[in-house]
Amino acid sequence: MAPQLDSYFKQVDHLSGSFIERLRKAVAIPSVSADEDRRQDVVRMSEYLVSELKTLGAHVESRPLGPQPGKEHLQLPPVIVARYGSSPSKRTILVYGHYDVQPALKDDGWATEPFELTIDDKDRMYGRGSTDDKGPVLGWLNSIQAHQEAGVEFPVNLLMCFEGMEESGSEGLDEFIEKEAKKGGFFDAADAVCISDNYWLGTEKPCLTYGLRGCNYYSVEIKGPGQDLHSGVFGGAAQEPMTDLTRILAGLVDTHGTILILGIAALVAPLTDEEQSLYGHISYTMDNLYESLGSHTSVHATKEQTLMARWRYPSLSVHGIEGAFSAPGAKTVIPAKVTGKFSIRTVPDMEIEHVNRLVFAHVEKAFEKLGSKNSLRVSCQHAGKWWVASPKHWNFTAAAKAAERVFGVPPDLTREGGSIPVTITFEQATGKNVLLLPMGSSTDAAHSVNEKLDRRNYIEGTKLLGAYLHYVAEEPMTNGA
Amino acid sequence: MAPQLDSYFKQVDHLSGSFIERLRKAVAIPSVSADEDRRQDVVRMSEYLVSELKTLGAHVESRPLGPQPGKEHLQLPPVIVARYGSSPSKRTILVYGHYDVQPALKDDGWATEPFELTIDDKDRMYGRGSTDDKGPVLGWLNSIQAHQEAGVEFPVNLLMCFEGMEESGSEGLDEFIEKEAKKGGFFDAADAVCISDNYWLGTEKPCLTYGLRGCNYYSVEIKGPGQDLHSGVFGGAAQEPMTDLTRILAGLVDTHGTILILGIAALVAPLTDEEQSLYGHISYTMDNLYESLGSHTSVHATKEQTLMARWRYPSLSVHGIEGAFSAPGAKTVIPAKVTGKFSIRTVPDMEIEHVNRLVFAHVEKAFEKLGSKNSLRVSCQHAGKWWVASPKHWNFTAAAKAAERVFGVPPDLTREGGSIPVTITFEQATGKNVLLLPMGSSTDAAHSVNEKLDRRNYIEGTKLLGAYLHYVAEEPMTNGA
Ligand SMILES: [Zn+2]
Ligand SMILES: [Zn+2]
């Protein structure tokens, strides 16, 4: 029997004005984690959350993480953990979000003040952090409040984990989660995990996200002369590191996205008929792609190929070169040491170490073929594993029912090309299923200028989060995969 | 009959202390032409020259060049023109130098204050502009003074042209020279030209320079998406401009310096036996090269091949990429628009326009082969022609005798890989032979930190400039080639 949600939904609509005020106050705190000078604003934002959660009757703790590695004078912002309800007869759901934001300056090209929530005539709510990730974080708080004011019993025990360093590498968070997920830790009782920190594939239809690509990031350094040389004086006499580097970078991938590194393709899990059948239903068109690219320069011609290329196949991107001339104008330098940067987005079943071995062997062999006197160093700067969950798990089927209940359509089952490292940390630390349940839409411009959250996504999203808790409280645990 | 130079030489030695003081005062004026805030120091340096030249009895004019193009509020530094002697029975020699300098900050890594002439125990005189080009400019003034004080008649009419924007593109100079070289202009009477603004090939032996390579500088812009993309989200779905650019840059030149652009090699003037025979005598070793490279990463194994590669064969250097990620660290960007920069050092008989046509055709064909949906734009940012004079011209044979007289060895006849555009301007405007007669040595670090001029090069160099004027006054004009 479907949960009784009408009075909850009605109360969300009734409170929508105050929910927007809550978001307005949050956006007004410039909690930019990358900016040392804004660290006290990040802390102020954590205090705002603590205060709001206490008012709602939650048990709240502000957990210090110690000094920031490499900046011993600077304390990391705390992790806010909170518990709402602790009934042994209810399921326990752990949710995650972050209260820090990307940097933003009016001068970057914002049409409005980035730290003033500004609502236009199409109900788009502009402001840094509106969609990433203050809106979703407050969605959980809103949902508690609407249950209280509607007099509807809260369906689960809710554990919350809100961090303040997500946009700056989540310093210290992995260890924290691992510790708290252990026996007796704050997250110990969790039956499932839900993260609301990504986006719909489009603007109309909700989605559940069950997979993320990993990322192996590489440096190829080529070094020759002791210092930069003048090309007039030494051009033709010295072997040039840039010549070698361009030839190595050119052998990694072709214009059509085919990775040229021997052995990579063989690591990719074959496409099953069942998986292939998922893509046709997804609400996405090539015009959606062209719009987000701002061009027609796609690799593939069809929606299915494009989505698979983004979600379930690896890709290789050359990002740039450090140490070479990169400014406007003309400089006749022979750079002495240049470092090419590229990364591979990884998918099942590509293991980090296996990919590294193939990349190193490929680059070393390519360099050897050049017969250069320069020296080569290739290394993996960092690597994060891909993640794929089963969309048939009860955590997902519950969320799918909630989404259909709120939006009237079954959600798309999506994967994402980028990585959200905390996903895999929660999965491994808790051993429980992790669901990504986005609130914002594809046009929200997280990390960019004019970030926004549509009023509809915020208010219906608050309904969605609450509805999800009802469905997940009742969903038969038949699919534990 | 060889000129009587003993009393001139003796007087130079006698005045050496005051010549060094003259250089000290000049180095103390930070006449950095690239720095707008230092423009009045550049002007102050011009006034110092005017005052010194007047004291020596020269006719001096400070010629304004008007506002700096693109910076209409900023006046260009003046060109100082001067005439010392105007006897119809004497030859007229036009000399050129520049009184502006490269930027320098102690923090750049200078061991001493850059704008304080500091002499160490090996008589190396450190200071910005010491060798480039204040030492040589003052060398001409010193030579006038030593003639006066020794009571030796000055052998020629000396025309001087000292500019204050050489390190910043010699704005406005070409038009000025062209005008003054015309009938009735200040340089009209010149019989030959001498420029002292380059360097010996080594540290022991003087040289005369009779050739310079030209430079064609290119941009290859590749453009795809409307804005930078996240490689997680779009990697595999979008054709990436960096992929195309690395493949184009990789096809320009190989590790061993061979230019891969069809048709370039055929433009190079063949090596004659006569020219080849010049290289063996030149005082230069592979160890000299290794020392200046700071490595053993040479293209060639022998001195002769190396010198020819630097002086008489073209070279192609890839300088860098604008628009890609170039900072330290890891950024997962797909750059939307990237511009590769490369240049070709040109030699006889490569014509600028012909080279451009071959480069454009090569790049366009390489791009076409990629089958990319991105767009390409290749252009020549700037081009300067190569220059080669006949080292048998009387201007050179006179200078060779002077150098042998001062240093006891015949000078090396050298060319340079880099360009000194004013050389070709003087040659074309006056129609006279231009000689490059360097004062400083290969270790002087012009344009770098710890620029210096050895006391020996300054004092013997002053003797050389004076001796040159005596020999050039008498040299039979049999080789006018
Ligand atoms: Zn986020
Ligand atoms: Zn110079």
TrEMBL record, chains A, B:
Residues the UniProt record annotates as site (Important for catalytic activity): 230
UniProt-listed SUPFAM superfamilies: Zn-dependent exopeptidases (SSF53187)
Cofactor note: Binds 2 manganese ions per subunit.
Key words of the record: Hydrolase, Manganese, Metal-binding, Metalloprotease, Protease
Binding sites annotated in the UniProt record for Mn(2+) 2: 98, 132, 197
Positions bound to substrate: 197, 230, 332, 345, 419, 447
An example molecular function term from Gene Ontology annotations: metal ion binding
CC cofactor: Mn(2+)
Pfam families listed in its UniProt record: M20_dimer, Peptidase_M20
Active site: 100, 166 (proton acceptor)
GO biological process: proteolysis
Binding-site residues, Mn(2+) 1: 132, 167, 447
Residue ranges occupied by any Peptidase M20 dimerisation domain in the UniProt entry: 218-368
PANTHER family: BETA-ALA-HIS DIPEPTIDASE, CARNOSINE DIPEPTIDASE 2, ISOFORM A
Protein known as: Cytosolic nonspecific dipeptidase
